[in-house]
Design goal:
The chain is α+β, with helices and mostly antiparallel strands. Helices cover 39% and strands 15% of the residues.
């Protein structure tokens, strides 16, 4: 089998993206990578121009993975095949992130959970419910989508949540769900679930950190009864809103 030689940047500059990715993948620009995923352009636009237009429209490649299926379908020049390719890439990125989240030793990784919630729920057109379990030292045991509902609600039983948490030596928990295409403002039922579940878990010596509600306009905290300043969150530190967790 013939080997493909690695080439320096100055040698690959004149090559097309398909040749460059074989010789030096890191040398490709974002639009070149996207052109390889799309495969071909349209009658009116080359695949290169189409890729540049898409990245400009969505604000860069980092935003591409978090687009919903509806948003991807609204992009210009995409048929079923290209839409499917972009959704597949988005799902691969999400699964890699979830696996890294499971493997890493990080305490109260709330920033990563928020990012994962954003990526996982954005393509969803129905409400989904998520649950996290942490140990006494803040290490994450699991973070999973445990239920999927309708366009406007998702049903989850408190006893099922308790049973899942008791499968691990859980000391802290976090619940979350999304409002597809709507405001993040929590409903009375959302607030009530947080209060009732917090009381039940407290009897089991488990602290419910919060109930997050993710909407088009941000992330709502049922604990704080307001939107969270997620723009200031970092992967290194516990967010300011949850500094009480740093004292354990």
């Amino acid at each position: 089998m013939s080997q493909i030689p690695f080439m320096d940047l100055d040698l690959v500059s004149g090559l097309d993206p398909r040749s460059k990715v074989l010789c030096n993948p890191e040398s490709l620009e974002d639009w070149e990578l996207l052109s390889l995923i799309l495969g071909s352009g349209t009658r009116a636009r080359s695949v290169y121009d189409l890729s540049k237009d898409i990245l400009q429209k969505v604000g860069g490649i980092s935003n591409l993975a978090s687009l919903s299926a509806l948003e991807i379908r609204s992009l210009p020049g995409l048929g079923k095949s290209r839409i499917g390719s972009l959704l597949a890439i988005s799902q691969i990125a999400l699964r890699i992130q979830k696996q890294k989240l499971k493997n890493q030793i990080q305490y109260f990784p709330l920033y990563d959970l928020y990012q994962n919630l954003w990526m996982d729920s954005r393509p969803q057109i129905r409400e989904s419910f998520y649950l996290a379990s942490f140990g006494v030292d803040g290490r994450l045991f699991f973070w999973e989508r445990i239920a999927r509902g309708s366009l406007t609600e998702v049903g989850v039983y408190k006893r099922d949540i308790v049973q899942m948490l008791l499968q691990y030596p859980t000391k802290y928990s976090l619940i979350a769900h999304n409002h597809p295409g709507q405001s993040c403002q929590a409903s009375l039922q959302d607030e009530s679930l947080f209060q009732e579940l917090s009381g039940i878990l407290l009897e089991l010596e488990i602290i419910c950190i919060d109930h997050w509600v993710l909407g088009e306009d941000g992330l709502y905290s049922c604990r704080l009864s307001g939107c969270l300043e997620t723009d200031s969150w970092t992967v290194e530190n516990i967010p300011q809103e949850y500094k009480f967790l740093a004292d354990i």
